[in-house]
Amino acid sequence: MSERSESRAGLLELDDLSVTYRIASGEVPAVRGVSLTLDSGAALGVAGESGSGKSTLAMALLRLLPRDARVGGRILLDGEDVLTMKWGRMRAVRWAEASIVFQGAQHGLNPVRKIGDQVAEPLLVHGQARPEAARKRVAELLDQVGLPTWRARSYPHELSGGQRQRVMIAMALACSPRLIIADEPTTALDVMVQAQVLTLIKDLVAENGISLIMISHDLSVLADVCDRLAVMYAGRIVEQGPSGEVFHDAKHPYSKALAAAFPTVGDPAARLAPKGLGGDPPDPMQLPTGCSFHPRCPVALDECATLDVELWPAGERRTAACVHVRAKEEAS
Amino acid sequence: MTETQATKEKVSTAGQNLLEARDLHVEFVARGRRARAVDGVNLSIGEGEIVALVGESGCGKTTLARTLLGLERPTSGEVRYGGTALDYGSKALKAYRRQVQLVLQDPTGSLNPRHTVYEAVAEGPRIHGLADEETAVATALSRAGLRPPERFFLRYPHELSGGQRQRVVIAGALALNPHVLVADEPVASLDASVRGEILALMLKLRADLGLSALVVTHDLGLAWNIADRVAVMYLGRIVESGPVEQVLTAPRHPYTQALMSVLPESPERVVLTGEPPDPTRIPGGCRFHARCQVLASGKAAEAGVDGKCRSEPLDVLPAVPGAQAACHYADVAG
Ligand SMILES: Nc1ncnc2c1ncn2[C@@H]1O[C@H](COP(=O)(O)OP(=O)(O)OP(=O)(O)O)[C@@H](O)[C@H]1O
Ligand SMILES: Nc1ncnc2c1ncn2[C@@H]1O[C@H](COP(=O)(O)OP(=O)(O)OP(=O)(O)O)[C@@H](O)[C@H]1O
Ligand code: SF4
Ligand code: SF4
Ligand SMILES: [Mg+2]
Ligand SMILES: [Mg+2]
Predict the structure, then answer these.
(1) Whose CA is nearest to atom 8 of ligand 4?
(2) What b/e readout covers B221-255, taking b as 16+ CB neighbours within 10 angstroms?
(3) Whole-number pLDDT of residue A294
(4) CB contact, 8 Å: B47 with chain A?
(5) Do B276 and A262 touch (CB under 8 A)?
(6) What CATH architecture does domain B3-233 belong to?
(7) Domain locations in chain B?
(8) What one-character-per-residue DSSP string does B282-309 give?
(9) Which of A172, A261, B215, B293 is the most buried (most CB within 10 A)?
(10) Which of A151, A159, A160, A164 has most ligand 2 atoms within 8 Å of CB, for mutation?
(11) Which run of H or E residues covers position A240?
(12) B168–chain A nearest CA distance, Å
């Protein structure tokens, strides 16, 4: 997996991004100060526990959050400030420059409209094509995601879950965006379709120079597709670095647990012995003090309950928010 | 795989046949075309046994699962529970559903957005008139990893993450203390750490209460983690089945071999291409022949079975616990 040079201007830059939901019982700080850079043509994987804020982060990028969400910090897409963009410009950006494949969105397909019409819609709405050309493009797109052309005439309920997810990817590709944000694009797909979809996504990134942010809780899947990985816990990035290194040699105890959670088939140690991480997932409304991971951390020190952790350098182009990493850096 | 090992497996997994599919067929008619979504399946789940059903998207897993639950009527064949054929009368079905609970693939679609978590989980206990509803709900929620449960009682689905929603769905199924869980991709949307917890929970429920389960999954690692037996489905049929140790370490059907090859740690990938399988056009001969890598590479021809692959359909596999594969090549090559 090639590392792209740091000097290249970022296509997407997040600076101290935060998102807080307001609900009846109070405030939910779902994303708490995330900074990162995505180079043009690069692929970044975002991993993390359920509820860690991955989808919230993804939706914030295109301002798709509900009204009761408060967003702070800065998002620059190709130098343009997303948070202050006019609505008209925002809508254009959503199709032509960046599009998102939502988690579970295959269930949101309109049940009474044919697949082909739904895939064609962004093409027609955004004036990219006339009906005849749109029909051709739909056939191309369906082919690209491995669905036979006649499926254009099917209704969503006639497709299986996996087939519908491929329709969603076709829709995201329709206007040839520069950035695709894919939220759990292969979750709930069988291994073969997952392999097909991942190969498809990899090719799109490699051949068309499309940049990618892919969200998953499966580190092995992300490591397969992405150059870099960011691991989130309780609304913050706790580790970042080249994907192979983070997957095989994680520095943060949480990333380590995440990497270990998917068993190797044939490994006797994993047979009838699923491995999880003990303890409860954190409640964003009552986050632990100090390092948010400390109540579940197998290598926590006394100071972890009060320490202000930050992303410390953890090797070349790597950072991790753990006191053990800071200690090592200081020693060296 | 040695005979002794196979025998050992049989002993450890063969309880009473609790839930059974016998020569099950389920067809749909869509736009004038007949889709044979389940096209002849024999399957049995023993008392306290966990069976994983794996296979490609669209191969009929959900249809099979729904039919086992009595949510779909078979076109032919039958579903049997505790040795008797399923009674589709509404009262009998209601009693049946208390025993055999569904955990759905799609948490968003299966939760009513206007119901709180408490109401969602309490629905089963209410319908079945369970005493001490609140304890049942709280226990189910904490078993499903939503702890402390009271924190979630009054939340609405849109206030939860995708994974938290799935845990609510699982809690809903656990609330009635069923005998059999039919779980359709139960942990696919869960975080790795919680996934381990839920799978461990299913093993614990099996150990403590003798719970049986059919787990529909695309995740072979999950099958390795918790299942006693695995059945591999392709285009409406089970093409290979047997003890997990045997099938997942020495798969005999080329389709199972391909599935294994796309796991992250595998050296050589066989990514199947070609037309995705379509139950309205099931090919003649072996139903996998158009995509089979063993046939395409000439190995089937070397073994002299290529003609059979293209023209001779395979028998429907019986519901036996031992390892078996529906493949002409595997028959001669062992
Ligand atoms: N609309 C909302 N209102 C209030 N809270 C919300 C809302 N959406 C999400 N949350 C909360 O924000 C946190 C982050 O949720 P988010 O959906 O971003 O998590 P995620 O990392 O995508 O999880 P998953 O892997 O389960 O999809 C969670 O605690 C969730 O309960
Ligand atoms: N109500 C229906 N009408 C017509 N065809 C249907 C119907 N339900 C399912 N099918 C078809 O039957 C086949 C099996 O679908 P099913 O949902 O059982 O697959 P699956 O194995 O669960 O797939 P996935 O892994 O994607 O969930 C598919 O080809 C699907 O298109
Ligand atoms: S800072 Fe402490 S509690 Fe946090 S991950 Fe590191 S060792 Fe564990
Ligand atoms: S019967 Fe022939 S075509 Fe079918 S799986 Fe076996 S080798 Fe392949
Ligand atoms: Mg999410
Ligand atoms: Mg299904």
Answers:
(1) B292
(2) bbbbbbbbbbbbbbbbbbbbbbbbbbbbeebbbbb
(3) 96
(4) no
(5) no
(6) 3-Layer(aba) Sandwich (3.40)
(7) 3-233, 245-333
(8) --SSSTTTTT-HHHHTTHHHHTT-HHHH
(9) B215
(10) A160
(11) strand A236-242
(12) 13
CA dihedral for B189, B190, B192, B196, sign (positive or negative):
negative
pLDDT at residue A275, as a whole number: 79
Tell me the chain A residues in contact with residue B9 when contact means C-beta distances shorter than 8 Å: none
Q: So what's the ipTM on this one?
A: 0.80
Q: What is the pTM of this model?
A: 0.78
A192 with B271: Cβ contact below 8 A: yes
pLDDT digits (tens, 9 = 90+) for A161-205: 667 878 888 888 888 889 999 998 877 666 777 787 788 788 877
The pLDDT tens digits for A147-161 are 889 999 999 988 876
Judged by its nearest atom, the ligand closest to the C-alpha of residue A60 is 1
The crossing angle, in degrees rounded to 10, of helices B192-209 and A253-260 is 50
The SS3 call for residue B321 is: coil
- Helices and strands of chain B, counted as H and E runs: 15, 11
CB contact (8 A) between residue B191 and residue A281 = yes
CA distance linking residue B12 with residue B1, whole number of Å? 16
Most ligand 3 atoms within 8 A of CB, residue of A236, A287, A297 to mutate: A297
CB of B214 within 8 A of CB of B51?
yes
Q: Name the E strands within chain B.
A: 17-30, 33-46, 50-55, 76-81, 84-85, 100-103, 180-184, 212-217, 229-234, 237-243, 324-325
Residue A7 CA, chain-centre distance (Å), reads 23
CB contact under 8 A, A50 and B190: yes
Nearest chain B residue to A151 by CA: give it: B278
Classify residue B78 as exposed, middle or buried by CB count within 10 Å of its CB (0-12, 13-18, 19+): middle
